[in-house]
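Supplementary notes for students who missed Thursday's class. We covered one full example, reproduced here. Read the sequence, then the structure, then the short commentary at the end.
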Amino acid sequence: MWVCRRADHGTPPAGYRLRLEGAEIGVETSMKYLGLTLDSHWTFGAHFKRLAPSVEAAANALGRLLRRLGGPDVGVRRLYAGVVRSRLLYGAPIWAENLMTNRRSLLAVKRLHRTVAIWAVRGLRNVLAAAAAVHAGFPPFELQALRCREIYLHTPDLSGGIGPVGANVRVRARRVLLDRWRASLDTRAGTPG
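Structure (token representation):
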């Protein structure tokens, strides 16, 4: 069960449990529903706090299978990046906007993106994350999450995303993603437009 914020910063009393019709229910500061974790402020901070170590462990485990020198070709490395991306972007249409406003969660996602991009290009730790991402053709996760949200928001009105109209939404969302990525790379480089 979930109880709203108390005066002591949203923490429930230690060991507090409710009994409803003979069943005991613990009181927590967050709630997990369909794989997404919400905290008492209706944000996804707790979701990323739990998700980041799990995805990072999976990324590192998969990365250990791929040698930096020689090893699998780019197709296998793209598959690796896709596995990590799918785990991270689960529920992205729901939490994408919240991610952009939560600095701590955004930093965790950027750190994961850096790890995956460097593994995808067989780079070492001192490789710039932006350079590795461009070389791999792998946009930042936060922009991919916004793309998922864009598709989700525009697809239900269309025939379930099937057919040319649904494909148009995907193409348009991809174009917006690439434009945002290009703009973020330009601002990092200090060059206008």
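Commentary. Residues 44-156+165-181 form one domain. Strands lie at 17-20, 23-26, 30-33, 36-39. If anything here is unclear, bring it to office hours.
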